[in-house]
Every structure is written in structure tokens, then in C-alpha cells.
Amino acid sequence: MNDKKTSAYRRIVSSTAIFGSAQILNILVNIIRGKLVAYILHSAGMGIASIFTSAANTIQQFALMGLNMSAVPSISQANNDADPQVLAFTIRLVRRIVLLASLLGLIVTVVLSPVLAHTSFNDQSYIPYFILLSLSVFFNVMGTGEMAVMQGLRRYKLLAFCSVVPPLCGLLLSVPIYFIWGIKGIVPAMIVVNLVYFVVIRMLSYRNKQSAPQEHISMKTMWTQGRGIIKFGAIMTFGSLLGTLTTYALIAFISNVGSIEDVGFYQASNVITSQYTGLVFTAMATDYYPHLSSLVKTNMREAFRVINQQTEIIMLIIAPLASILILTAPLAIRILLTEEFLSIERMICFIGLASVFKALCFPRDYIIFAKGDNQIIFWVETVWGCTKTFTIMGAFYYYLGLDGLGYGALCVSLVDVAVSLVLIPWRYGFRFTRKTINLIIVTSIMATICLLGSLIPSPVEKYAVMGITTLVCTVYCGIQLNKRMELRAIISRIKNRHKKQEE
Fold first, then answer.
1. Using an 8 Å Cβ cutoff, are 268 and 320 in contact?
2. What CA–CA distance (Å, rounded) separates 114 from 125?
3. Which single residue of 8, 40, 97, 278 has CA 20 to 30 Å from 398?
4. 3 state SS of 425
5. What is the CA radius of gyration of the chain?
6. How far apart are CA 196 and CA 143, in angstroms?
């Protein structure tokens, strides 16, 4: 039993490391690409590229209808079944739905090209570019759908590799095109990048194609069998859209009540905190979501065990990262931004602690999506979530200014914890184990002490408290990770492997 638990913890950390590394590489590539594009296209070209990208992303979001999320549980559950025909049929069904979504995106882009040209540039000469943009939309939706198939099949190494393909293509393919054709190469570069992205993903995905007999899937069958996937995806799309509108409304509120500079400060704080902790959430979700989806309808006891394990691992990773963020906030601002942004130090510190409480909710709340509970997703995650975020953040900013956005972010996360602690046990019967509760309490207290240390006026006492707390938190979390994963055994195994290779 202990070996099984150790193996489960190792799998969680291993998958997180794989996708976390891919995300770090993506960030580095995008930074390099951004600087080159700025040098070649200048501000005007970057503005035009941003408009085309925003238009394409909006259409892709509507065309895909959340299939990249809703298809994963169906494929993951079919992958757990012993019947390969069920899995093969589910994959073909998803691919058929994605193909129709891709065609819908293409047609919508072509039909709306005059409107897009007028609203974006007030210049009808851009219509041919928007018509060409439809090809980019088509290939992007197809590639995103194929990524969902691989995520459902839990081909994590291939998935991590494929996630690096778009930024690498953007660097290696689009930059030369910009250099040769300038602004006129923006849309052709988008087409080439998304075409290569789709071809690479499809080739890798089909490498281990299921050999079950192929059967024709009619429109009637597709609607009957895929209605649940489409309905779930539509709700996810609505939630994503409402989240985007909420973010826009909050930014507009800050701009009107305060200033455009405060909007820039708020966006900058989110960028820095995402560099520290955002990667962990993205990396963990890629593996955790399909794994949990495969369990919730067949083995709830095992699913609850996985949720507790995931909670322990993410708290052990996020707590020291949040403490380091709070400790090094001024340094991070100077490195990633400029001294002009030092006024957001306190905001970053509070958002850092908020990420700890977000980590507490993260694993248990995913049971809602794994079960496809549309009512909770719509009313709680979407309607309540967006209303709560805008109200709290807006109120704190209105009364407390820029620092209020940090206080608001922490308040939002605490409200989320309270709702999750009531909703999830009532709806699904899940509760944390005593072992997990003790770990949550210890890591949350240490991160909170680190935040309180950042509020001390005296610099010496301030950094002494933060430094000692961060060190203790990091050592404690390292020891706890070692207990769960037996890191010494892993290191010994690696050493023995090297010795055998040398012999």
C-alpha cells in the first residue's frame, strides 16, 4: 500500500515537472519572439498583429464551444474501459465534432470578413486578409481538438511536446516571414504556424491509432451520442466568455474610477504572479483532469484519495513558491519590469498568499468538471464566480485604491475556500483526510506569517521574518515531499543507473 501511495505521489510530481518545464520553455520562447517581432514590425505592426490574433481567438473560442474541456472526460472514461471499440468510437466522434467546429469557424470568419475589416480597421482593403485568416482559424481549432484527444488518452509526454510546438513555430517560422514581407506577412505567418501545429499534432496522435473497425458516424448518431459533450462544452464556453467580460468590466472600472496607469499596474502584478505560481496550476491540471475524470464515475473512493494526494502535492509546491514571491517581490519587479512598478509590491504579496488558498480549492473543485455537473458549473463557477469577483475586487479598489486590488484578490480566494468547504461535501460527499488537513493548516500559516512579515515597517525586521519563514516553509515542504515520494530512493536509483552505464 505504501509503495502504491509513493508511486501515486511520484506520478503527480513527475507530470507536473514535465508540463511545468514545457510552460517555462514557452515563456522563454515567447519573450524572444516578442522582442524580435517588436524590432521587425514596430508598434504599428504589433498593433495590427494583435487585432488579427484577437479576432482569430474570439472566433476560435466560439467555434470550439469548449470541446477542448468537455471531450476529455468522455475519452478518459472510454480509455479506462476494456472495450477498444468504445474508445475508438469516442475518439472518432470527438474528431467529427471538432471537424464540424473547425468548418464553422472557417465559414464564420469568411462571412464576417467585411464586418471584421470595418470594425477593426475601418478599411475594406483588409477583407482579403480576414478571408485568409479563416484558414488559420480552421487549423487552430483542429489542432486544439487533437490536443484534447491526447489529453483524454493521457499521452502526457507527447502532449507536453505538442504544447511547445506553437511558440517554437511562431519563433522559427513567423519571424522569418515578418522579416521578408513585413506587415503583409502577419496573416500568412499565422496560417503557416497553425498548419504546422496541426500537422505535427495529428501525426503524433495518429502514431498509435486504435485499430478497431471504423464505422460511419451519421449526423444523427453524432448528435445523439455527442449531445452531452456539446452541451457541456457550450456551458464551458459561456463560462469562459463571461469570465472574459468580467475581466474587461473590472479593467474598465479601474480605468474610469482610477486611471489607465492603475490598469497597467494591475496587469503587471498578474503577469509576475503567474510566472511564479500560474505554471503549477496549468501543469497539474493537464494530468489531473483526465485522471480524475476516469475515476469519478467508476471508483469514487479512489477519486477521493487522488484529490487528497493532489491537494497535498500542490500545497507543498505552492506554499514555498508563494513565500518566495512575497520575499522577492521588489527584486522580481526590478528584473521583470522597472522601478516604476515598485508601487505594486504590496499587491503582489497579497495575490501571492491568495494563490495558496486557490491551491487549496483547486483539486477538490475539479470534481465538478470531472463529473460534468452542468448546474454547478453554470450557477456557482460561472454566474456566482464572476459576480463575486467583480463585486469584491471593485469594492476594494474603490475604497482602498491600488493596494485594494491585492486585498480583494485575497478576499476572493477566502470566499472561494468557504464556498468550496460547504459545497463539495454537500454535493459529492468529499472530505479531506486528517493528514491533508494538518498539512493545509501548517503551509497556510507559514505563508500567512510571511505575508504579515512583509507589512513590518522596519526593513531589517521585515526581511528577517520573511527570510526565516520562507526558509522554514521550503525545508518543511521539502521534507514532506521526501516522505511521500522517497526522493533518496529516486536519487540512489539514478546513481546506480549511471554506474551501470559507465561499467
1. no
2. 9
3. 278
4. helix
5. 24
6. 9
